[in-house]
Specification:
The protein is of the alpha+beta class. The chain has 3 domains: about 150 residues, ATPase, nucleotide binding domain (Nucleotidyltransferase, domain 5, 2-Layer Sandwich), CATH 3.30.420; about 100 residues, 2-Layer Sandwich (Nucleotidyltransferase, domain 5); about 70 residues, Actin, Chain A, domain 4 (Alpha-Beta Complex), CATH 3.90.640. About 40% of the residues lie in helices and about 25% in strands. The chain is built from 12 helices and 19 strands. The strands form 5 sheets. It has a 6-stranded mixed sheet with strand order 3-2-1-9-10-19, with helices on both faces. Strand 15 and strand 16 form a beta hairpin. Helix 3 packs parallel to helix 4, helix 6 crosses helix 7 and helix 9 crosses helix 11. It is flat. The N and C termini lie far apart (about 60 Å). About 40% of the residues are buried.
Length: about 375
Amino acid sequence: MEFYILGKTNSQPRIQRWSEKLTVHIDRLGRAIGSFRDRVGSEMAVDLGTTNTRMYLRGRGIFVDEPSVLATDSLNGEPLSAGSNARNLIGRSPDYVALHKPLCAGAIADAAHTALMLRYLIAGARKGNFPRWYRMAVTAPSCGTRLERRAIIEAATKSGAAKVLLVPTLIAAAIGVGYKINSPRARMLVLLGGGVCEVGIVGLGHIIYSDAARVGGETIDHAIYEYLLHRYNIQITMEMAEKIKEELVYAESSATPHETMRVTGREARKGGLKSIEMRPPEISRAVETPINCIVDLIQEALDNCSPAVLSDLENFPIILSGGLSLLHGLPELIVKMTGFRVAVAANPSYTTLKGCSAIVDDPKQHIYCLTQA
């Protein structure tokens, strides 16, 4: 004989039906919210660099171009300033201010502070009808690891982006310099940033070859700082080191002029001011190691090319992009060491952002360049 408890056997299927209907309605609501955000939101391109962070909003243009520096309250961690205002506090900040450079050598070293910096920069640039929701396309180094890409996604999401898309820096720079990356002809591009140097060969819409070294403009700045400290016992600021790099450093030693520059800093032992006269040949020899590393990286890429790719590269110059490509004598040195023609991109500091903005302006044409997070 079987016994049934009233209400148990008949109510279970009804609960399952209610649960299934609720799941369907929640899914429809989520799709409706997502569709609404896609309609009222906008596309944003972000060039997240070691030295500078630049942002582009479709329909508005470049609205952020600031140094990648964040100042926070050392007691509660709240952001106080970011960008140029925070960089001006380096060496001048009071005790309650903590300064952060959340990006190091082309990668995110601190995702939380990177998100705070992005949010602060976006909030400071909000004017007029700035979208409440936005989709963010962020450049990511082609040599980056999976962990580094996840850090970029985490920082962009915490900064307020509704959707995050990753764009390889080599692809963005190739589009920015005017390459037709769908062309069957291969071309070489060298990205010389503040913390990383990337060498890539692009063709047929893909990266045929890529390699990178953790060397860049900031590496040369630190080499100048260390040289003056050990050779002349002078401590200088990074701003002074950057100025010396721009005016005195020549990659091609045979082209160094005879001009001089007065360098003033703090004497490390006594603590007073000390000034010396610097000449290009001396300071250029001090930074030979990072410059030779860049040239060796390009030569290694050429050595690993197939004959078909080499024949393509012979017809087109190697394009230098990034702020370090403006270094005196660097194109001449690469021509001398490799034998290939070299050209510097127009406005090289903005080629990556220009390519990334072209992708968000016309995502259907460049859909193969995007990686959805």
